User: Fold this.
Amino acid sequence: MLTITCDVCRKKMEDPQTNRSFFYYAKHSVCEPCRDNFEYQIKPNLRNKEPFAFDWYRKYVSDTLDKAVQKGRA
Ligand SMILES: [Zn+2]
Assistant:
């Protein structure tokens, strides 16, 4: 059985379904509750970013997620 650990909250997920019960962001695997918290956090900044640049987005997601992983929560 495949088990994946959420990089943020360290919860283990058995038989996870990609993009349904867990998600890949940057280089991290993230469970659904952490994904929701994370998206809630980054959404206002994404909306305000003009002009939108994909390189900036990738770096922003990766940096924000690195911080969440260090803190142990999104
Ligand atoms: Zn999690």
User: Anything to note?
Assistant: The CA atoms of residues 46 and 53 lie 10 Å apart. The pocket of zinc ion is lined by residues 6, 8-9, 11, 30-31, 33-34 (CB under 6 Å). The chain has two helices and four strands. Residues 3-71 form one domain.
